[in-house]
Amino acid sequence: MTLLLGGLALAASAMAAGLPPERQAGGVSYVSGGVSADEAEAFKAMRNNYPLAIELVQQVGGRNMFTADAKVRVMDSAGHVVLDARADGPFMLVRLPPGRYRVEATFKGMTTESPATVNIGGHAQATLNFPGSPD
Fold first, then answer.
1. What domains lie within the chain, and their CATH numbers?
2. Phi, psi of 76, rounded to the nearest 5 degrees
3. For the stretch 83-96, what's the b/e string if a residue is b when 16 or more beta carbons lie within 10 angstroms of its beta carbon?
4. Where are the alpha helices (DSSP H) in 1-135?
5. Do 83 and 28 form a contact (C-beta atoms < 8 A)?
6. What is the pLDDT along the chain (135 residues), one digit of tens a residue?
7. Highest taxon of the source (predicted)?
8. Distance linking the first and last C-alpha atoms of the chain
């Protein structure tokens, strides 16, 4: 009961901080977005409150630019998919139990991946970089 109330309190503080509402995919809660400058700042401010923060960027003209609409999958150490969702912006904040994960994202037919280890009470960051668009 205490864990549930703590999760609800964190979700409420995330919404108060300007984040979109949390969603569920399987047994995992996540929030995605960050397209506007204000929302991007809210995601950056709240990322330490989530066990896993995912950032999606694409190389454009030699610079890293935020991207949106990537398909994101998170697999546990046994290869089971624990999150399969579309990113609404360049950020995803994910509530996961401690463990080793592989984060994979596909954008415009390109797939990239990154390992992530979530420690007890810790926080992991996965930045997924896509090469520039061929078009």
1. 2-130 (2.60.40.10)
2. -80, 180
3. bebebbbbbbbbbb
4. 2-16, 37-46
5. yes
6. 444 444 444 444 444 467 999 999 878 999 999 888 889 899 999 999 999 999 999 877 777 777 888 999 999 999 999 999 999 999 999 999 999 999 999 999 999 999 999 999 889 999 999 987 544
7. Bacteria
8. 52
